Amino acid sequence: MKPMDLGVVADSSIYFHNASPQAKKMFYYLLCTGHYYCNSEYIVTRNKLDSFLLMYIKQGNGFVTCNHVTTPFHQGQVVLLDCYSPHSYSSDGDLEIYWIHFDGNTSRDYYEYIISQSGNVITLKDTYSMEKYLMKIYSFFQNNTKIHEALISKYITNLLTDLILFTNEITPSYEHSDLVEDTISYICNNITGTLSLEELSLRVSLSPYYFTRVFKKETGYTPHEYIINARINVAKFYLKATPYPVKEICFSCGFTSESNFCTSFKKVVGITPSEYRIKFTQ
Question: What pLDDT is recorded for position 214?
Fold first, then answer.
C-alpha cells in the first residue's frame, strides 16, 4: 500500500504483517516492511512503538536521535533502533531506504549487543547481504506471494548476525556460487533489459573487474558471454516453436539490432537464425 508519512514521495510502498501466535512464540517476526523514497520533509518522531527497527540507507543522508544523542547516517549504513523508547529520524535531502519493524524473544539481546559495539548507526564494509535479505523479506509482500514466517525469521536472523560480524570487524564470507546464482536468476528474469556489467556488479556490491573474475570462475563465461548465450538460447526456442519474424524475435530477446543478433547467433550456433529455423522446422 502507499504510505501516508509526510515527506514520503511517489513509488514508495509499505506492507503490514499480522504475525501468527506461533511465530510470535517461536521466531523473529515481522510487523511491517517498506521501501521509501523521501524528500527533505521526511521526519519520524515517536515516544513508543512495540518493535525494533532495522533501516538500510540505499541512497542519501539523514539523522537519527535516541537517548538524547543525534547521529548522522548516510548511504550504505544501517540504522538499528529500539522503538520501545523515544526516538526520531529524518532525511537531509533526498533519501531512499529499505526497512523492517520486527520483534522476537531475543531481539533485545541482539540489539543491546550490537549497539554496545557500534552505536545505533552501523557502517557496512559489504552491503550485498543486507540488501539481499531485506529484499527477500520485502518481495514476499511486493510480489503477493505466500508468507513463510519461518523463512522471514531466518532472514532477520541473518541480518542481525551480519551486523554482529560487522561490528566485530569480521566481514561475512559469502559463497561465490550464491552470488553468481543470484546474478543468473536476475539475468533470466530481465533478459530484455540492458544488463550492463556496471549494473550487474553494482547489484552484488563488487567492482566490475572483480565481479567478472568471480563470474567467469564459477560459470566459465564472462558476464557478457553468458548474457549473449542466454539470449540466443531464448531465440532458438522462439525460432523453433513460433512463427514470429526474425526481427521480432531479435528484439524480444534483448538484442538492440537485427544485424547484431544475426552476427552473434551465427558466431555461437554456426548458422544464421533463418537457417536454424529451416533446419528445425522442416
Answer: 87
Give per-residue pLDDT as tens, 18-30.
999 999 999 999 9
Question: Which structural domains are found in the chain, ordered by start?
Answer: 13-167 (2.60.120.280), 175-282 (1.10.10.60)
Question: How, if at all, do strands 77-82 and 52-66 pair?
Answer: antiparallel
CA distance 5 to 12: 10
Q: Residue 158: how many CA atoms within 13 Å on its side-chain side?
A: 19
Instruction: Let me know: does 92 contact 70? Beta carbons within 8 Å.
Output: no
For helices 258-269 and 273-281, give the axis angle rounded to 10 degrees: 60
Closest CA to 93 of 37, 34, 10: 37
Least reliable range by pLDDT among 222-226, 270-274, 276-280: 276-280
- Cα angle 35-101-11, degrees, rounded to a multiple of 5: 15
**Beta carbons of 60 and 94 less than 8 angstroms apart:** yes
Burial of 84 (0-12, 13-18, 19+ CB in 10 A): middle
CA atoms within 13 A on the CB side of 25: 3
At 189 the pLDDT is: 85
